């Protein structure tokens, strides 16, 4: 382990991974409460859901776009998977936004 000054690079790397996986629980929690439109959600829950959805699409496009460009069948599968995830994530997204509006004192409807 190398240390420079007071920084321990191994601990920084470990804490970075812990931060990502800890915040991933917010993302999973939104899918668990997909039909709860009456509760409240914290700001972190809402914005980490948006962030992980965005990262999912960026990774999907960076990794799969070169493969998709090669053949027509992969293109159809890619589009189908993308629309399927959009459809499956829409209702949990709507639920977390309504709960977030309730948390800020506004009506979700």
Structural features, described:
- The model has no long low-confidence stretch (mean pLDDT 80).
- β1 and β2 (7-8) form a beta hairpin.
- The protein has 3 helices and 2 strands, in the order ββααα.
- α1 (9-32) packs across α2 (43-68) and α2 (43-68) runs antiparallel to α3 (72-103).
- The protein has a two-stranded antiparallel sheet with strand order 1-2.
- Helices cover 75% and strands 4% of the residues.
- With 109 residues, the protein is mainly alpha-helical.
- The chain is flat.
- It has one domain (25-103).
Q: Count the beta strands.
A: 2
Order of strands in the sheet with most strands: 1-2
* Poorly predicted parts: none
Counting helices, strands and paired strands, the structural category is: mainly alpha
Largest sheet composition: 2 strands, antiparallel
Shape from CA axes?
Answer: flat
Q: Separation of termini?
A: 55 Å
Return Rg in Å: 19 Å
- Give helix and strand order, one letter per element, not per position: EEHHH
How many discrete domains?
Answer: 1
Question: Which whole number gives the mean pLDDT?
Answer: 80
- Proportion in helices: over 70%
What percent of residues are in strands? under 5%
Number of helical segments? 3
């Amino acid at each position: 382990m190398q240390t420079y000054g007071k920084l321990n690079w191994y601990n920084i790397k470990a804490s970075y991974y812990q931060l990502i996986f800890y915040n991933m629980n917010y993302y999973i929690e939104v899918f668990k409460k997909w039909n709860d439109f009456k509760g409240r959600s914290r700001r972190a829950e809402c914005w980490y859901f948006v962030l992980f959805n965005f990262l999912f699409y960026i990774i999907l496009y960076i990794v799969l776009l070169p493969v998709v460009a090669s053949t027509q069948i992969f293109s159809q599968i890619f589009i189908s998977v993308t629309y399927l995830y959009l459809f499956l994530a829409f209702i949990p997204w709507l639920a977390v936004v309504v709960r977030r509006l309730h948390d800020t004192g506004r009506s979700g409807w």
